């Protein structure tokens, strides 16, 4: 995916560097250590691509970008993305250590010496695991505020990467053209373990206006207990094969199969999530894990969509961008959130999703380096 000038964002979750790539090519590293997942973003120059990239400019050719300030080879390099479960933080440390990412070399003479060997870190784990990073890798974490990073990451992506934002309506993704002069204000809803809702008014101008503890951690935690699923993706897959009407109490179940136009609810609308379970003489084992997962996903996504819209309404915002790894590019999740926003706003507000959903915070921490050159990409 091209980002702005010649910079390229590349989304891969692991094994991203060729085995013979030297560590000297890695320039910056940032981590976002959340309640569920650790996200890692690092940049590398594309020197290793020169052989098979004939005709394209090498990193040195990048010098001369008309920004009036320093130019950095990262503009021609790549951003690499990786993620790990927070409970397996040792795997993450091993990854960083094996690739020597924490020994980011001063491979460009103009790179600030201040940035050398520093890991920018955000998320709660930047505090919780600071000693572990020191002990295992010998590095100090340079902590960056979580909300600052989410907003910086979101603004960076929206202004730099095309296509980044999309709507999901009737099973179709539609990319949204972002007008840089008409981006603000917007509501950023980051659905991680918990959910943060942030009103964004500009670069570094924002307010966390709300949040809810009913988020991705709730879906994964409750889902694990109720279905015995071993992984998040397995739980999501189950939901695809499920039928929520088996467990959810619908308006029709209460009204004898008819719509309820006076209160604007059709007979198929959910009146009470998981409500059917109270009136049936069934145990947990009598329900299919697929149906449980479907009802749970619907409950959480609906609830977040509704709270998001109410907050957008509070501040007169029409655009709501959703990020966080709960979304996982999953059709039913995005569809439920979109329908909730559409329903509650009577079609006035739009739910939009970000392709780099879970990496906003890590990207924001990355952009806080003084010498990465990304601000230059942004302005171009
Ligand atoms: N492989 C996975 N393992 C665990 N959870 C996953 C996975 N993929 C997606 N998820 C979902 O993503 C959520 C975590 O999202 P994200 O990484 O954005 O938040 P976080 O930074 O861990 O949380 P917080 O910001 O609240 O500390 C999980 O709670 C789960 O719902
Ligand atoms: C506590 C954080 C910010 C940690 O990332 C997140 O999990 C969250 O926004 N939780 C929701 C907390 C609340 O506002 O009720």
Automatic annotation (TrEMBL):
GO terms for molecular function: ATP binding; pantothenate kinase activity. The keyword Kinase applies. GO terms for cellular component: cytosol; nucleus. Pathway: Cofactor biosynthesis; coenzyme A biosynthesis; CoA from (R)-pantothenate: step 1/5. SUPFAM superfamilies: Actin-like ATPase domain. Transmembrane segments: none annotated. It is an enzyme of class 2 (transferase). Its EC number is 2.7.1.33. Keywords: ATP-binding, Coenzyme A biosynthesis, Kinase, Nucleotide-binding, Transferase. It comes from the Eukaryota. Residues 1-22 are annotated as: Disordered. GO terms for biological process: coenzyme A biosynthetic process. PANTHER family: PANTOTHENATE KINASE, PANTOTHENATE KINASE 1. This is pantothenate kinase. It comes from Actinidia chinensis var. chinensis. The lineage of its organism: Eukaryota, Viridiplantae, Streptophyta, Embryophyta, Tracheophyta.
């Amino acid at each position: 995916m091209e980002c702005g000038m010649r910079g390229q964002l590349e989304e891969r979750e692991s094994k991203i560097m060729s085995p013979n790539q030297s560590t000297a090519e890695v320039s910056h590293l940032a981590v976002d250590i959340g309640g569920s997942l650790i996200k890692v973003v690092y940049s590398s120059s594309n020197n290793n691509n020169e052989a098979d990239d004939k005709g394209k400019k090498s990193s040195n050719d990048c010098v001369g970008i008309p920004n009036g300030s320093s130019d950095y080879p990262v503009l021609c390099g790549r951003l690499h993305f990786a993620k790990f479960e927070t409970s397996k933080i040792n795997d993450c440390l091993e990854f960083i250590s094996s690739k020597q990412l924490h020994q980011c070399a001063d491979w460009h003479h103009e790179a600030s010496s201040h940035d050398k060997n520093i890991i920018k870190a955000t998320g709660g784990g930047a505090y919780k695991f600071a000693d572990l990073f020191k002990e295992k890798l010998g590095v100090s974490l340079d902590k960056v505020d979580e909300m600052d990073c989410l907003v910086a990451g979101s603004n960076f992506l929206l202004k730099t990467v095309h296509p980044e934002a999309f709507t999901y309506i009737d099973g179709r993704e539609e990319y949204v053209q972002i007008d840089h002069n008409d981006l603000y204000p917007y509501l950023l809803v980051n659905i991680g373990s918990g959910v943060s809702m942030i009103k964004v008014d500009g670069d570094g101008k924002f307010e966390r206006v709300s949040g809810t503890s009913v988020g991705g951690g709730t879906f994964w935690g409750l889902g694990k207990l109720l279905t015995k699923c071993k992984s998040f993706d397995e739980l999501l897959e189950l939901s695809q094969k499920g039928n929520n009407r088996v467990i959810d109490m619908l308006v029709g179940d209460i009204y004898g199969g008819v719509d309820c136009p006076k209160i604007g609810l059709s007979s198929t609308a959910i009146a009470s999530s998981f409500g059917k379970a109270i009136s049936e003489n069934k145990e947990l084992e009598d329900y299919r894990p697929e149906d449980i997962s479907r009802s749970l996903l619907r409950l959480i996504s609906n609830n977040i969509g509704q709270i998001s819209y109410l907050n957008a309404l509070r501040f007169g915002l029409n655009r709501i961008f959703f990020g966080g790894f709960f979304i996982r590019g999953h059709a039913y999740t995005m569809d439920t959130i979109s329908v909730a926003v559409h329903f509650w706003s009577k079609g006035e507000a739009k739910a939009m999703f970000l392709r780099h959903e879970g990496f906003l915070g890590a990207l924001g921490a990355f952009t806080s380096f003084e010498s990465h050159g990304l601000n230059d990409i942004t302005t171009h």
